[in-house]
Amino acid sequence: MTIETDVAIIGAGSAGLSTAKALREKGIAFQVVEGSHRIGGRAYSEEIAPGVWFDLGCSYLHLGDANPFKDIAASLDIPLCHERADMFSDENLNAWDNGRRLEGAALKAFLDYRDANEASIAASVARGEDRAIVDLIDMESEFAPSYINGLASLNTLDVDETSAKDYLDFGAGYEGRHLDIPVPDGYGNLVKAWGADVPVTLNAKVEEIDFTGPGVTIKTAKGDLKAKLAVITVSTGILAAGDIKFTPALPSEKLDAARGLPCGTENKICVHFDTDVFGADGTGYHRTWTDDDEPSGFEASVMGLNTAIVFTGGRHAIWLERQGQQAGHDYAVNQIANVFGNDIRNHITRSIVTAWTTEPWTRGSYSCALPGQAYQRETMKQSVEERLFFAGEATAIGVNSTCHGAYLSGLRVAEEIVAALAQK
Ligand SMILES: Cc1cc2nc3c(=O)[nH]c(=O)nc-3n(C[C@H](O)[C@H](O)[C@H](O)COP(=O)(O)OP(=O)(O)OC[C@H]3O[C@@H](n4cnc5c(N)ncnc54)[C@H](O)[C@@H]3O)c2cc1C
Known about the structure:
Layout: E1 2-10, H1 14-25, E2 30-33, E3 45-49, E4 52-55, E5 60-62, H2 68-75, E6 94-97, E7 100-101, H3 104-126, H4 144-155, H5 164-169, E8 180-182, H6 187-195, E9 200-201, E10 206-210, E11 216-220, E12 223-232, H7 236-241, E13 245-247, H8 252-260, E14 263-264, E15 266-273, E16 284-290, E17 293-300, E18 307-313, H9 314-323, H10 325-340, E19 348-353, E20 366-367, H11 376-381, E21 388-390, H12 403-422
Helix pairs in contact: 1-12
The protein binds flavin-adenine dinucleotide.
């Protein structure tokens, strides 16, 4: 069966849903097709224990007050945990060297080392360069393994693969840049509740986008969709892998942009305990390293839910993902035990280990520019022949790689569509 509409929206994540809502407000007809069985995309919550939600993808409203999901949550009566929005601040940081807490001069040395690296990165970008982070930081320091592990979790690529400019551009100019608001009942659930009023055809994988004629034909697992224009919100991982066939082929600049902004890996391992194993002083963000394992960062019971969430990134995350779920669980439990002691092992109820590298609907976690490629975000967001429009986190300059950046990209593309339809 062939359906006809004005705008075909491919993907029902944050970007696709916000495009749909904005077009609806403007009275423009649309159809949303989603390959998977649910809406939300990389915003997805699972209940690890009764009433305890774990976000496999986005979990913090980054950039605090500037985040549009703050008002969306208020309008839906969904609570946010404002009081822990500064959990990643220096004042609240807990750092552990072989199970010993860094304090006083040792903690200061750790923070000074980080600040010197960040200053070096900023100076390079100010000179107009776009180098790999690895070229700009002190790799010999005793703190280097922990620092580069933290950057890999944040950026999804290792420091030799990460553009210093892309890293620095994130959040530039935003007040509250360092505020990260947790969502007690799940950011994924928030996006699901907000998107629930958008009609979406699920299980409709797009196989081909044919834009040879006037208009666009979208070939899906559930039949064809003919539209005047299409909005593509799939990840750069999906685009670069060629999972969707384009007829004619996409211009090489567009494919180069997707390849220059690969979807790297951040994985999370959530471990739930049957009791509060952390104590009142233990909640918050911890960085920990030992002599015989990869370092890590983890969040412990920030919202009083008896969970710890261990973050992994870059090649180590890919390697660990390939070892399987048990290896991920063991790594996470060891990291938590390094700080809170071996008795925690007696209180584990369950864990959830994410596997974003092999997730077929994203092929990675979120985009990160390769060295020299930060400018590709601009190319990524350009339309092709004013018929194919691109939204999604990779196109959200300065707020890239976030759920609310994806949302804002949907608003941007809706404006572009109004202008394009007016010309037809
Ligand atoms: C581990 C992790 C932690 C994160 N932490 C945070 C955080 O704390 N805060 C934050 O703001 N952001 C975070 N993010 C990033 C955030 O989740 C994403 O940037 C955002 O959700 C992306 O939205 P999107 O609409 O661009 O893409 P997606 O959510 O990926 O939506 C695209 C949709 O397209 C669908 N699709 C793919 N291929 C096809 C096809 N062939 N046919 C039809 N449909 C298709 C997919 O199934 C998907 O639903 C995190 C992400 C991960 C993975």
